[in-house]
Specification:
13 strands, 6-stranded mixed beta sheet, dTDP-4-dehydrorhamnose 3,5-epimerase, 5-stranded antiparallel beta sheet, EC 5.1.3.13, mainly beta, 162 residues, Jelly Rolls
Length: 162
Amino acid sequence: MSDTITYVDGDIEGVEIRYLKTFRDNRGWLIEVFRHDDLAKDRWPVMTYISSTLPGVARGPHEHVDQTDGFAFIGPSDFKLYLWDTRPDSKTYGNKIVQVLGESKPAAVWIPPGVVHAYRNVGDVPGLVLNAPNQLYAGWGKKDPVDEIRHEEADPPKFILD
């Protein structure tokens, strides 16, 4: 049996994409990424971090065993987000999602464990991504193994970013 699968476009069970509203005034703008009263408790963040990604650069593909990532793509650039459902017991196994999010379409995306994900900055300027995962990186006190399965160096590649 081959472990090669052809992914098809479609929703992915457990992935939540929320398009965000930008509130603007004479001081600038504000985007509300999440609220406890609007997000399932198992997705509440336990930490947050912001990363800057240069134009043309990709992060991933990788996945988590237990962690749900809560990304916010808000700018000042656009990112192409790639998601693949690799969970054999999922109703949407074999589906993929590819969307451009960020400056042109602000969104928060919650990605459950077992969904492979990657993103590439497709804009002309460095872009910022906020991540608010529901697990601590390397556990309490950074003493546990990191919950991450990396696929960037797979040969042959299993997850292609166009």
